């Protein structure tokens, strides 16, 4: 009996052990499957996350604003459809008296109206002799706008040299805010640079101007230089770059287009390009390490135009920078990567007018890569020469279209282009 009981007990113990083992195996199996399910869930979640991320990236890319070059490309068909004469005229900014052959200086009369119909220029620039009072300035610009609208002209740039200090057409004549030369503010730093520029911009915008030929991005690096001197923001290249970047923001926030001048840098010359040839004996490496700093920072801050100076850099080209494809193409476009509008300094200045006819200078300036030609000595000759160069094949019409597209893109930021 006892043996039978022991046998039954052993059987029961064996069953218990087997059941326990089975339970353990089942538990392990379930645990493994649960982990497997969780891994699957994780994989599904991660896959969903990837899809959502890709979708968000695609949506973000779809809403990302077009680049400057893409916006310019969008204007190419508009430029291509314009008559040759209209688009060539769009590449000029001249004085009111240049447009009217001396008839209108301080008013916009029927002469201005007729002239705009015949020569729909890209813009007008006003000097002290054009400005008498704030009311008169508003009236002359307002009347010109009305004439342009009547003829269906592309809206014009209305520009002025208002740097502050010694070059201040409005402050000197009609009582806008007066400043010392910008050099004397350099110790006050970037916030003062911004504030001064914003005040200047606000003042001239209230008169009807939409373009300032400022700030001066040259550095006063040659003590014998008088044409720039205290017009510069500093005599230190790095400080100039910092101050110029804030000045650009100030002009733009004040409501006007602004212009960096005078590329590749006029602060190291001893001569004055207003009177004749001005030379800077700098190598490409020196320019890139020094003079270009301010232009690079100004461009990065959103400068609307870059003005080329009539400075000769013998190490780069025997031609003045404003007529040099090597300097404009290789340095400003390629090295600095600038894609926006390039405008010449006044083509009536001695460095150009004493050596080239108005027609030759205009064609050479476009060949070099400029988009806007400022104040040729003989505006009508310059327009005719550019048109003749296109008809003869010296300039391609597509080259004209490229410049006009840049101009239209820039205008479209603050004006309505119909």
Notable features of this structure?
disordered N terminus, 418 residues, 16 helices, alpha/beta, TIM Barrel, 12 strands, 2 domains
Ordered list of secondary-structure elements with their pairings:
Layout (H helix, E strand, L loop, with lengths): L1 H62 L4 H14 L2 H7 L1 E3 L1 H4 L10 H9 L4 E4 L7 H17 L6 E4 L1 E3 L2 E2 H6 L15 H18 L3 E2 L24 H17 L3 E7 L14 E2 L4 H6 L2 H9 L4 E4 L2 E2 L12 H11 L5 E4 L5 H4 L4 H11 L4 E2 L4 H14 L4 H16 L6
Parallel strand pairs: 1-2, 1-12, 2-3, 3-6, 6-7, 7-9, 8-10, 9-11
Antiparallel strand pairs: 4-5
Helix pairs in contact: 2-16, 3-16, 8-9, 9-11, 14-15
Q: Major sheet: size, sense and barrel closure?
A: 8 strands, parallel
- CATH topology name of the largest domain: TIM Barrel
Which CATH architecture of the largest domain? Alpha-Beta Barrel
* Rg: 34 Å
Number of separate strands = 12
Q: List segments where confidence is low: pLDDT < 50 over at least 5 consecutive residues.
A: 1-6, 28-52
Kindly estimate the percentage of residues that lie in beta strands according to DSSP.
Answer: 5-15%
Shape: globular
Q: For the residues shown, what is the average pLDDT?
A: 89
Number of domains: 2
Strand order of the largest sheet: 11-9-7-6-3-2-1-12
CATH class value of the largest domain = Alpha Beta
What does this entry look like structurally?
This protein has 418 residues and is α/β, with parallel strands linked by helices. It folds into two domains: 1-64; 68-412, TIM Barrel (Alpha-Beta Barrel), CATH 3.20.20. It is 54% helix and 9% strand. It has an eight-stranded parallel beta sheet with strand order 11-9-7-6-3-2-1-12. Strand 4 (162-164) and strand 5 form a beta hairpin. Helix 3 (84-90) packs across helix 16 (397-412) and helix 9 runs parallel beside helix 11 (292-300).
